[in-house]
Amino acid sequence: MKQLKIFFSLVRDALDSATKGNTAYHIWMGLLTVLMLTGAYCYSKQLNEGLSVTGMNDRVSWGLYISNFTFLVGVAAAAVMLVLPTYVLKDIDFSKAVLIGEGLAVSALVMCLAFVTVDLGGPARAWHLIPGIGLFNWPDSMLAWDVIVLNGYLFINITIPLYILMKKYQGKLPHKRVYFPGVMISVFWAIGIHMVTAFLYAGLPAKPFWNNALLGPRFLASAFSAGPALIILALEIIKKYSDYTIEIKTIRKISLVVTVAAQINLIMLASELFKEFYAPTHHSSSAIYLFFGLDGKNALMPWIYTSIAMNVTATVILTIHALRKDLRWLNVACVLLFVGIWIEKGMGLIIPGFIPGPWGDIVEYMPTWIEVGVTLGVWAMGFFLFTILVKAAIPIETGRLKYEKLGSQ
Q: Superkingdom of this entry's organism (predicted)?
């Protein structure tokens, strides 16, 4: 009963902290609210008229929603790159960033589930994904595995930080025997969520563009590039607009992780290109369409070459030590890498898997304004949640917000 009282006190104080800020903070939250309302309006149109209002069709049945879902699974998995050195390797330089990374993981997972929901056409259909109630088809279905690992990882990333914050809120040290087993599970689970998502695609032999043994490792490499890149940008914003102290060596250590992962990602990309184009077969049609176009259809070419240019430029910047140590260049590289991998996971991976169709017909896909509106709304919801989590965690982490102080007043 006492712990429940402390929990409600923490929630109340966290919400109170989240509603306070300077003018820039309120403008930011207001902008996110406008985007969420716009997304809600677009989603209402989709609920009313069906998925026909999107650019998806019988040939290309996964579009912008599943593209963002795939990308965000990687962003969520990237939290392990902070959890592992902090809790397992005892690297104190990462300790200031780990709760931020876990907050980002929670926000990314919520967005993942939201994108799956909007892609179903309506939330009422989500009951099919509930074990024991819906047509779950576990363990045969890789989609069922994906549902399990995503929800399990979300549970882990909520409960462990919540326990640590509740202890610090009370002015106590968290007990390692309580949270460490969950930390160890989360390290392997983080890798599992992205590998299972990769297996979801690679396990479809009718889609040769995805039926690739390298897909899982490349998913991890791109995840450990884009996720920590976003964490670096978030840490720099938090450092600039709050009193939360983040050492420059913390950012530099994370940037080294991003650099190695980005280099590995490019090596794997080169391997895939060699496999597709050195001795092309009819199974290379999707890759040919993506990179060179087919039958005069080449809608995805600008996307993939933009993605590659961004990834290569970012990796070059990160590889040159003098540029990586300059925060201005580091920020440029992180933005390029994040956007480049976002394009790569969507327009460069999901969409071309459906083109050409089983009979060789080419039906191109381009998202409609409804899809774009819903997507922006879901992203705004994720950033809104992340902002609230950060605003709640920082005062507790720094010791400015404690239960004892409030209880004595």
A: Bacteria
